[in-house]
Write a structure and sequence with these properties.
By secondary structure, this protein is α+β, with helices and mostly antiparallel strands. The chain has two domains: 48 residues, no CATH class; 87 residues. The chain is elongated. 31% of the residues lie in helices and 10% in strands. The C terminus is likely disordered. The strands form three sheets. It has a two-stranded antiparallel sheet.
């Protein structure tokens, strides 16, 4: 993206498999320039940028539900079940939960083995709330044997 005239396009976070891309406006470029860069780079995305199948999304959701149960059983009673965002991707909505806390970090590390492998690689969750380093974002889910 940067070599196609979107100079502020960010690198993915370590271990991140899927990302919600910033908008053209967020990056200070025109929509047409941003779209042209996306078209030029799409072949570099896993599966050419195509969306996962409904079965893959369901499998990922099931793993995320198991992750939620694990988080709750290991001392995070308010950890929510996953939902899907406007694009149909599984997400955790965690308002009021600080991903920078030691409890969340340690517990998430204990539970990541429950996240399933997708066709594009390990499911990685990003927990973000704008607090702390890296804007409060932490990635979990890179299984050790991947």
């Amino acid at each position: 993206m940067r070599s196609n005239d979107v100079p502020n396009f960010p690198d993915p976070l370590p271990g991140q498999v899927a990302a919600k891309f910033p908008s053209a406006q967020d990056l200070g470029v025109s929509t047409s320039l941003y779209q042209a860069a996306q078209n030029a780079c799409q072949h570099l995305l896993p599966n050419g940028g195509s969306a996962p199948s409904q079965a893959e999304v369901q499998q990922e959701l099931n793993g995320m539900r198991s992750f939620s149960q694990c988080m709750r059983s290991h001392g995070v009673p308010n950890w929510p079940d996953p939902s899907t965002d406007s694009s149909g991707q599984p997400v955790f909505s965690i308002p009021g939960i600080n991903p920078d806390s030691l409890l969340i970090s340690n517990t998430a590390n204990e539970c990541t083995h429950l996240l399933v492998q997708s066709t594009t690689g390990p499911t990685t969750i990003q927990l973000c709330n704008g607090i702390g380093e890296d804007r409060g974002c932490h990635g979990y889910g890179q299984p050790p044997n991947s």
